[in-house]
User: Which sequence fits this backbone?
């Protein structure tokens, strides 16, 4: 935070502990999609903006059809710009939500199906998740190619339900793909953290 009078930067350190008693929240109830039942969890998200364009709705429905035929449980985060009714029939093994905290999902997921946005890809690789990536725009095709070249996922362009189902099945079953994603996760874990960066900045600017 910048002191407007002096221009000095005030350093603020944050910890995981709440600062006030009223910040303490009771333990959250585990949502239905997170309840373990022996089936792997597939997380599907095409970002927060894709649902706003009707041209992407076919992809959403294809993903639902694909995962509905697999022996998995799935969580599909559509983004708030789409009426869930527009998806049509939702398979019994799929939970659809407009938004979910990805920090709650990634540690539980076995596979990530996404659009290849930089944030989703980095978070998925940090957790060692094999991916099925269907790029839509911007940097997503390049991100998808890089993940595929690294052996950590499959890139699909304008897929149908059958090709999505096959790619999801491979991501779930291919030990080499899972191992590649795991290697990248380990490399990421060895990189300096944000806290390390803050400490280095403070060392360089000790005032």
Assistant:
């Amino acid at each position: 935070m910048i002191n407007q009078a002096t221009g000095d930067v005030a350093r603020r350190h944050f910890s995981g502990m709440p600062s006030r008693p009223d910040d303490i929240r009771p333990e959250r109830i585990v949502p239905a999609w997170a309840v373990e039942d022996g089936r792997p969890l597939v997380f599907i998200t095409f970002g927060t903006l894709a649902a706003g364009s009707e041209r992407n709705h076919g992809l959403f429905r294809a993903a639902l059809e694909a995962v509905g035929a697999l022996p998995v449980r799935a969580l599909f985060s559509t983004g708030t710009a789409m009426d869930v009714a527009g998806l049509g029939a939702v398979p019994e093994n799929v939970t659809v939500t407009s938004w979910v905290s990805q920090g709650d999902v990634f540690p539980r997921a076995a596979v990530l199906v996404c659009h290849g946005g930089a944030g989703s890809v980095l978070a998925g690789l940090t957790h060692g998740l094999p991916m099925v990536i269907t790029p839509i725009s911007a940097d997503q095709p390049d991100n998808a190619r890089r993940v595929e070249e690294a052996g950590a996922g499959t890139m699909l362009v304008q897929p149908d339900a059958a090709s999505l189902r096959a790619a999801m099945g491979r991501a779930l079953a291919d030990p080499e793909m899972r191992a590649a994603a795991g290697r990248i996760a380990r490399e990421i874990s060895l990189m300096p953290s944000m806290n390390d960066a803050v400490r280095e900045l403070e060392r360089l600017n000790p005032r």
About this structure: The longest helix spans residues 175-189. Residues 125 and 185 are 6 Å apart (CA to CA). Residues 1-26 have pLDDT under 50 and may be disordered. The domain at 34-189 is CATH 3.40.50.2000 (Rossmann fold).
